[in-house]
Amino acid sequence: MTNNIKSLRLGSIAVAAVVVALLVVLMFGFNRVNEYEAAVKRNPLTGAVAAVPYRQGLYHSILRSWTNYSLREVQFPIDGASETLTALTSDQLQIEVDAAFRYRLVPDSAVHLYLTVGSPRDVHDYVYNAYRSATRDAIAEMAAQDILSEERAGIADRIEQIMATRLVPRGVEITDFFVREVVPPESIRQAIEAKLAREQQVQAESFQTQVVVEQANQQRAEAAGIRDAQEIIAASLEGTAGQRYLYWRYLEMLGKIGEGQNNVVVAPTEGGIPLFFTPDR
């Protein structure tokens, strides 16, 4: 009887142990790979790494270790912020660059990243170091004056290009890169402001010169019109027809004068001495 009880107890303990083992396996013996992830499998005993990454699914972890990599785009800095880096230009002037970027991992490169770079955290640090290095290399290729003038728009493209040459072979794609602000040294900033002020002054003076030239052209055209009108009038007053026209105009004006009050008429004479008289109404 005692032996039976002991056997039952041992059987119960064994069953409980099996149940606990199954629960542990169910709870901790699987690795879940989400639809936006790629996982790398490694044998912890032999150190062998699977040749291809694993995609979405549920995989057991018995004698296996898993490293999951997110395939979603990563924003740096997070929350839409930006980071300011200090770099030297080709003429050894210090420039501050405020930039941000986004990147993502190529799914088929997860194993290569695991073997050559490391964990997801190591990959992020590697991308960040590549960004800092590329920014300084890109700034070092340009002079401060060029960066702050017509070449400023190309800074982001150049930094992104340098980063791509270093990251794409590793399986990392730069999906977006933008420079929000470039802060020049105080001496350069003052020189740029002085240059802009001078350019605005030159533009204002050029506009004023154009106004003066246009006014002169208008006056010249007006004088030419008056001259042409006088020539036409003088030509029309020549000969007998012109004298008759002047006589008719003289009579017409006398009539208008006669309609007024206290008007003085000046009448020319053959002797050249004008006569002054007031017409009687």
- As a percent range, the share of strand residues is 15-25%
Give average pLDDT, whole number: 79
Q: How many alpha or pi helices?
A: 7
CATH topology of the domain at 74-189, by name, is Tetrahydropterin Synthase, Chain A
Please tell me what the overall shape is: rod-shaped
Separation, N- and C-terminal Cα atoms: 167 Å
Low-confidence stretches: none
- CATH superfamily grouping of the domain at 74-189: Band 7 domain
Can you walk through the features of this model?
The chain starts with a helix and ends with a strand. Among the domains are: 69 residues, no CATH class; 116 residues, Band 7 domain (Tetrahydropterin Synthase, Chain A, 2-Layer Sandwich), CATH 3.30.479.30. The mean pLDDT is 79. The protein is of the alpha+beta class and 281 residues long. Strands 5, 6, 7 and 8 form a 4-stranded antiparallel β-sheet that branches. The protein is built from 7 helices and 10 strands. The radius of gyration is 48 Å and the shape is rod-shaped. Strand 9 and strand 10 form a beta hairpin. Helix 3 packs across helix 5.
